[in-house]
Amino acid sequence: MVQHRKSAEERQGMTELECLRHSCAHVLATGLLRIWPEAQFAAGPPVENGFFYDLELDHRIIPDDLKKIEVEMKNVIKENQPFERTSVSRKEAIQMATEGRLGALGARPKPSKFKLDILQDIPDNEEITLYRNGDFTDLCAGPHVMRTGNIGAFQLTSIASAYYKGNANNPQLQRIYGTAFKTKAELEAYFAGLEEAKRRDHRRLGRMLGLFHIDEEVGPGLILWKPKGAIIRRELQTFISEELHKQGYSEVFTPNIGKLDLFRTSGHYPYYSESQFPPLIEPDALRKLANEGCTCSELANYLKSGDINGYLLKPMNCPMHIKIFASSPHSYRDLPIRLAEFGTVYRWEQSGELGGMTRVRGFTQDDAHIFCTDEQLLTEIQGCLKLVLKVFGTFGMDSYRVRLGLRDLDSSKFVGTPEQWDQAEAVLRTSVQQIGVPFSEEPGEAAFYGPKIDFVVKDGISREWQLGTVQIDYNLPQRFNLSYIGSDNAPKHPVMIHRAPFGSMERFCGMLIEHFAGSFPTWLAPEQIRVLPISDKYSEYGRKILEQLTNAGLRAFLDQSADKIGAKIRLAQLEKAPYMLVLGAREEQAGEVAVRSRKNGDEGTMSAFLFVERIQTEIKQRQRD
């Protein structure tokens, strides 16, 4: 990804922690230069969760080197060097860089070539500043902490390669990553959080629990849902379908592919073609073009101009739902019309951006589109928000914040009249206020076709995930010339609402795996009960209990292995079974089961009937552990 230079205002807007980490990057450079004074430094900004510094050095830095650099960094911090800011002319900065003194401990035989290049990017009207700590001087806009001793705790974390300025045509540099905090306790808590994140990683748990698989022969970013994962997906769909039925949605089904003209009308093609799979051309048309000697570039131009047609794996469901709405005449009395679909769409993600279930190329959205009048907007938006909050409450996502994306009044990129935008933004603002949660208004963050609400949720270890987008759309009803007959007997464009509480089944399931650390609530667990006879002698009783559980609609498994009961229990715990029923002589004679739960351990014995009744209630109410 090409790196864009931050403005002076953006740099001065650093948080206190970003400022500390930026200063630590300078300490990194100072410490490294004490070992390799010839190193050529490029840029060293703070980033999410830490900082990095890019450098060119003949010596290939290895993990063992990080400890050596950290020793020198600790010396720099102990010396408590002040960060001193100096404003210089462009001529002075170029002279210093030519003498090798920028990003260095002093003058060197070779110029500071990356600093010379960075100087060319600084606008003529922008102040050029240097920061010095000890012998190290760098071209830098700041800001920094007062002294190196203000850096409480740090650690270098990894080494990578990176192209200068993120451009593959530039030299490849070495990149050293690190992180820093005010206190050692915060640093330790950060690394403890990383370890917990590894423990919860949905890719690891997905393999361990047999939930999903990604196969290179099928294709990167294409999820194969295994039987246990399919159960979770089915339960999620059942849950949301029940809520949609209560709110008066109609379920529809649409194909996974559509004509290019459909997506030309919607604007998805060619404007977003870089994030889509290439179009499919009809075989006869393709053979004809080949016989005519058509080149690839000519074919691309024909597709872009619309001179030839083709088909496209659908990147969005909305054009299909629009066509369903347009297939019948509508009166204002028919509205709102709410169409819902678990629709699979396809996006071309770069291979380096793919990640497990959370960044994929084919995914199924719990998608819905509402067609309504302006007067109905508030009620419909409130219904969408209630659905999102129902999802959060069911899964124990109690910590979330709301972003309200508004138009930028100084921009002309937004479609629709100012009056429509004023009404839509007022509707969203009122709806969010009625939820009673903190929200931030973010001008310029609306979609070009209308304002939106985004929910950002914290999972079980306080990481943030964006879920539950609700968007108002004036653009597509106009592009497709949708209409209904109003109360004045005149045709009018409906307002369109896009909403998807889960976002996608793949991403939501990946997030849930990590949120619950694989220990799903009973209603969602692929296996709800593990039946454990203590020996072969009680396998027949185990089969009777299994039959009773299965007939009651419960998902149960009988462990008939020759393992000892302790090993069976440990395996069931490892595989995250919510309940275990241990069966021996006493249980068989009394017609009971010994219950062990994932949450409470040994819960004593009870009749199989009472256990089934208890679990059915837990599932029906979608209780959490």
SSE layout:
Blueprint: H1 8-12, H2 16-35, E1 40-41, E2 46-47, E3 50-56, H3 63-78, E4 84-88, H4 90-98, H5 113-121, E5 128-133, E6 136-139, E7 153-163, E8 172-181, H6 184-200, H7 202-208, E9 212-213, E10 224-225, H8 227-246, E11 250-251, E12 257-259, H9 260-266, H10 283-291, H11 296-305, E13 311-313, H12 318-326, E14 337-346, E15 362-372, H13 377-394, E16 400-406, H14 418-435, E17 439-443, E18 452-458, E19 464-473, H15 475-479, E20 484-485, E21 491-492, E22 495-500, H16 505-515, E23 529-533, H17 539-551, E24 556-558, H18 565-574, E25 579-583, H19 585-590, E26 592-597, E27 601-607, H20 608-620
Helix pairs in contact: 2-3, 4-5, 7-16, 13-14
Task: Report how far the terminal alpha carbons are from each other.
Answer: 43 Å
CATH superfamily of the largest domain: Bira Bifunctional Protein, Domain 2
Biggest β-sheet: count, sense, barrel?
Answer: 8 strands, mixed
Helix content: 25-40%
User: Major sheet: order of its strands?
Assistant: 11-14-15-22-19-18-16-17
Number of helices: 20
CATH topological fold name of the largest domain: BirA Bifunctional Protein, domain 2
Q: Please state roughly what percent of the residues sit in beta strands, choosing from under 5%, 5-15%, 15-25%, 25-35%, 35-45% or over 45%.
A: 15-25%
For the record, the count of structural domains works out to 3
Architecture of the largest domain, CATH level 2?
2-Layer Sandwich
SS-based class = alpha+beta
Low-confidence stretches: none
Mean pLDDT, to the nearest integer, reads 92
Alpha-carbon Rg, integer: 30 Å
Number-wise, the strands total 27
Shape: globular
CATH class of the largest domain: Alpha Beta
